[in-house]
Amino acid sequence: MTSMLSVLKKTTPIVMLAGAISCSTLTAASTVDEIKAKGTITVATEDNYRPFEFVQDGVSTGYDNELKALVEKESGIKLEQEIMPWAGILPGVQSGKFDMALSAVMVTDQRRKVFDFTTPTAASQTYFATKADSDIKSGKDLIGKTVGAETGSAFLLELKAYDKKLKDEHGEGVGKIVEYHGYPEAYQDLALGRLDAVVNTDITLRSLMEERPGVFSLGEPVGEPGYKAWAVKKGNEAVLKVVNDAMLKVRESGEMYRLQEKWLGAKNEDMPLDVN
């Protein structure tokens, strides 16, 4: 395993930024003290997004939920969790209903305008998936096809950007984009032939194929490499500090990478420390 020291050497400017998170102002520090005295932070987590977070036999499980337990242990703060569909999570954080999105939030430039992020929890890239017997093999093959994505997701935005790229390069793009409130319904429509393809993170699509072998096939990337992280409302420095301080320790100990290997199939040891 790559030592944390080597990661720090690779990301010196980022370490300085991470340090800045810990060096809060006096006002933020008093708020941190209040959080520690209260002992809780309210968080929202998606209910059906394997392998990151999902409910199985009435119990919340997956990568983010096991990472949550380690952060709680390290910080001494309980992350009071509400399990809900993706569509309500980021709006709930932005409105102040929740302190944090404890979910596999894709970090994008647009989201950085309204959210601050913890150290990344995973590296990922947006791909498309098809039925196993599909003749769609390349991104160009999506021209004229019906493609699904989740409403409000970064993957939907990347699909729309890819559609524009196809139009710019080939004069025509995706035939139709269908939006879903959750991916299980999109996968069902893909299996039934109502969709030609679905876009999602490569990690989640590989998990889908392990869960339903022989049904689906992984295509090509339609987005750039990126990172997932937990998100707080921009400027909520106290919550970010409490959670991030604990998560950086979990990462430094190697426990984050152990969970990545267990749930995601690979360790992402070369991720930057800060993605804000």
UniProtKB/TrEMBL annotation:
<dbReference type="InterPro" id="IPR001638">
    <property type="entry name" value="Solute-binding_3/MltF_N"/>
</dbReference>
<protein>
    <submittedName>
        <fullName>Amino acid ABC transporter substrate-binding protein, PAAT family</fullName>
    </submittedName>
</protein>
<keyword id="KW-0732">Signal</keyword>
<dbReference type="Pfam" id="PF00497">
    <property type="entry name" value="SBP_bac_3"/>
</dbReference>
<feature type="signal peptide">
    <location>
        <begin position="1"/>
        <end position="28"/>
    </location>
</feature>
<comment type="similarity">
    <text>Belongs to the bacterial solute-binding protein 3 family.</text>
</comment>
<feature type="domain" description="Solute-binding protein family 3/N-terminal">
    <location>
        <begin position="40"/>
        <end position="267"/>
    </location>
</feature>
